[in-house]
Amino acid sequence: MDEIQVESKPLLVDRELPEHDVETPYGRLHCTMKGAPKGDRPVILTFHDIGLNHKTCWDALFNHEDMAEIMQHFAVCHVDAFGQHEGANTFSTGYEYPSMDQLAETLPLVLKHFGLKSVIGMGIGAGAYILTRFALDYPNMMEGVMLININPCAEGWMDWAAHKISGWTHAEPDMIISHLFGKEEIGHNHELIGRYRHHILNDMNQFNLHLFVKSYESRRDLDIERPVPGINARTLKCPSLLVVGDNSPAVDAVVGSVIIYDMEIDNLCLCSSLQPAKLTEAFKYFIQGMGHMPAASMTRLARSRTASGSSYTSDGNRSRSHTHDGNRSRSHTNEGSRSRSHTTEHGHTDGTANNNVDQSAPKSTEISC
């Protein structure tokens, strides 16, 4: 997770939200429903990363003013992993924390509890892994999914050894910080890092957090298969949006997953930082491509780009906007250093919904955000 911060005063006012404890074979799963489900529309279901809960992970995004229009159309169900919510009781000694696969198996119980037929997933890090597993095992329940900083692979033996060695010399909060943020962020944004370190140390139940971290470190490969014509491969059947900060420690894993697995991804979004306005813009384009909110207005960010894109520099060239020949900022263009995405093979998009595209054959393309 690169920087997720509030860029301006939030428009939405946080208020007491209905909290639910969903019974599962592994204990009660804490969920928070924001808004009421609207007809047959899916609900947005979120899952957080290690070291976070739904508030510290998602409040900056869902309280941002650009999310107001989306919140008018969709209810949101925030899921907290076992023992990670505020005020969680410490698990008893000997409690066997569920695996990543088992956590994914609890999500159908969440849908049943709230009477939901399907959801649009939004996960980051460990939460993205869990939602992907859920989408693979229950494709009819997932209409679409936005995966931020996902690592679909099991922890390799070198990663395991590195964690073991660093565990001898560093406290677990520092290991979590290095998972959430890139080296540049850690080295320069001391205020942000200090705020998250304080949260991890003071707001999270340390015993419960340790169990969740160990569960994530013990994950197995998602076993996503390369799509083969005529064969029902085990791959994501729903529209998918991959998002990663270009300074994120997960950038190689995210981009590599598209190449290694040839994942049928609708959009690969490389952001200079994961800020609410940029995430909102990418997510709005994504759900519009799924057929929702066709009359939605442009975000403030998109409007500013449209305005700047209509101006010309003194030599007659377009300013840096959504042009194909512009010098795109640190993105997956063919000329850029990170040309590992499928833009060459599948083409390029600026993130707007394209109703003429064959929806039965998702493509791996790029959003500029």
TrEMBL record:
One of its GO terms (cellular component) is cytoplasm. The keyword Cytoplasm applies. GO terms for biological process: cell differentiation; nervous system development; Wnt signaling pathway. It is found in: Cytoplasm. Residues 298-369 are annotated as: Disordered. It comes from the Eukaryota. InterPro entries: AB_hydrolase_fold, NDRG. Keywords: Cytoplasm, Developmental protein, Differentiation, Neurogenesis, Wnt signaling pathway. The keyword Cytoplasm applies. Signal peptide: none annotated. Residues 322-349 have a biased composition (Basic and acidic residues). Pfam families: Ndr. Residues 305-316, 351-369 have a biased composition (Polar residues). Contributes to the regulation of the Wnt signaling pathway. Down-regulates CTNNB1-mediated transcriptional activation of target genes. May be involved in neuron differentiation. Belongs to the NDRG family. This is Protein NDRG2. It comes from Cyprinodon variegatus.
